[in-house]
Design a protein that fits this description.
By secondary structure, this protein is α/β, with parallel strands linked by helices. Strand 2, helix 2 and strand 3 form a beta-alpha-beta unit.
Length: 193
């Protein structure tokens, strides 16, 4: 089975994340998308980052109606800080019959060469890239790498930061969130302070 790993803090998960995940599930040659919730780095200031389990719960609520999209807490069980190369090695060991690929925005591809052991990732895993609007110069060498697949997905310019700030300001941003996620956030008064 070909699994696309879509990493994020999902603080909160929003319709933009689902649009990308669903597009990859339907239009790339992937069987499933695992939305990997990145745990809070204990070395960083928590600020507005919700608890790991709360963010995982939102991803679960957002994806339960999508048969090809699954929430994943795999990084919760790994040492911190989490490096993608270690997560991939762990997954490959745990699920030897699966083939794991990464899903990332074009902005992340531009800094991939700064990732820990990025050559190992490129050697062993495909990377599916969705377009993002960015001022960074393009990494032409990486973009033409045989393991990099640029997918013509919709450009979604919604950010979790914008959603958190809007909730804090008392704005109605309900259309930007899956209904069950909106209810969960509203019920728990998340992001209001």
């Amino acid at each position: 089975m070909k699994i696309g790993l879509y990493f994020g803090t999902y603080n909160p998960i929003h319709v933009g994340h689902l649009i990308i995940a669903n597009h990859m599930a339907e239009f790339a040659d992937l069987d499933q998308i695992w939305m990997v919730v990145t745990p809070h780095n204990p070395l960083k200031k928590k600020s507005t980052l919700l608890d790991d389990q709360q963010r995982l719960q939102m991803v679960f609520l957002a994806t339960e109606d999508y048969t090809k999209i699954k929430p994943s807490d795999i990084e919760f069980k790994l040492p911190q800080p989490s490096y993608t190369v270690i997560t991939l090695a762990h997954l490959q060991e745990k699920y030897p019959t699966h083939e794991f690929s990464l899903i990332m925005g074009e902005d992340n591809l531009k800094t991939l060469h700064k990732w820990k052991n990025y050559e190992v990732i490129l050697e062993n895993h495909d990377i599916y890239v969705y377009p993002r609007i960015s001022d960074e110069p393009e990494n032409v060498e990486l973009k033409s790498h045989p393991k990099i697949h640029v997918i013509d997905a919709p450009i979604v310019e919604i950010s979790s930061t914008f959603i958190r700030n809007s909730i804090k300001e008392g704005k109605n941003i309900q259309p930007l969130l899956p209904p069950k996620v909106w209810e969960y956030i509203d019920h728990n008064n998340f992001y209001k302070k």
